[in-house]
From TrEMBL:
GO terms for biological process: proteolysis. This is Peptidase C39 domain-containing protein. CDD domains: Peptidase_C39G. It comes from Acinetobacter venetianus (strain ATCC 31012 / DSM 23050 / BCRC 14357 / CCUG 45561 / CIP 110063 / KCTC 2702 / LMG 19082 / RAG-1). Residues 66-197 form the Peptidase C39 domain. One of its GO terms (molecular function) is ATP binding. Coiled coil: none annotated.
Length: 277
């Protein structure tokens, strides 16, 4: 008995001490790949660490996500101040500043922030800003991001204009993340052709809202209509044959009066379909 206990203790010691167990970074997973047995190898399995980043992180890259239904204005302003002005504000800090320097009573009544509230808060930070009306060409000629109001899905909403490229307008939406609209659609939803610009001194400007390749991975309406809303593009004959092979055959009389084998014995296939309750 003593020998068994001593052996177990030694096995536990060597198991825990002989191998160095490192703490793995968060989000690390492992995949196992079976190697080709025809190739000489000391091992049959290859293990490699792969760090998976949630898609939502890239979707909201550089964006301060709005915490409340009515706080798109404060989130958009925080996104612009942080991404272009190099500040490190939270949405709560921006909301506090907007309530302090903005029209407090009107903010409470309409449950939203206006461009005037933004201008007053930005002025309190020592920065120049202003709201303007312009043409679409004025917006695309901008060399900096700007806040633009849009009317989308029946609601008035603030987003941050990032760039225009190849007929599409790319914006940072505090609610939906990095999204884009085609030019004609953006012109329809752009509210009153208004934009809000903050003048950031050149030495403090950041480029966190610059357009990246990941932003341009969009699916246009034509592609959706062609593939997602169309019938299956693959031939069904092969799948019919596979289903026939997996079914039960039976002999019946052909009941189709237009068939050459009408009222003659033919072979049919009985397929079984399972319905989930």
């Amino acid at each position: 008995m003593l020998e068994i206990a001593l052996g177990s203790a030694l096995m536990y010691y060597f198991t825990t001490q002989a191998f160095e167990i490192e703490k793995k970074p968060e989000g690390t997973v492992y995949y196992t790949e079976t190697l080709d047995s025809r190739n000489p190898s000391f091992t049959r399995n290859h293990r490699e660490a792969v760090v998976i980043k949630p898609a939502v992180e890239d979707q909201f890259r550089g964006i301060v996500r709005q915490a409340y239904d009515y706080s798109c204005g404060s989130a958009a302003l925080t996104t612009l101040l942080n991404g272009y002005g190099g500040l490190k504000l939270t949405e709560q800090q921006t909301m506090t500043g907007l309530l302090q320097y903005g029209e407090y009573q009107r903010i409470i009544e309409r449950r939203s922030f206006s461009l005037l509230d933004m201008k007053r808060f930005v002025s309190a930070l020592g920065l120049n800003s202003g709201g303007y009306r312009g043409e679409f060409s004025d917006l695309t000629a901008l060399k900096q991001p700007a806040i633009v109001p849009i009317t989308y899905a029946g609601f008035k909403h603030f987003v941050v204009y990032k760039a225009y490229k190849d007929g599409r307008v790319y914006v940072a939406d505090p609610s939906l993340g990095n999204i884009s609209f085609d030019e004609s659609r953006f012109k329809e939803i752009w509210d009153n052709n208004t934009l809000f610009i903050i003048d950031i001194p050149e030495q403090y400007r950041k480029n966190f809202l610059a357009l990246q390749d990941a932003d341009m991975r969009h699916v246009d309406d034509a592609t959706i209509n062609r593939y997602a809303l169309a019938e299956i593009q693959f031939p069904t004959q092969r799948f019919e044959k596979i289903a026939d092979k997996a079914s039960t055959m039976r002999r019946v009389l052909d009941a189709d009066p237009n068939s050459e084998n009408y009222n003659k014995p033919i072979t049919t296939f009985m397929r079984m379909y399972y319905k989930r309750k």
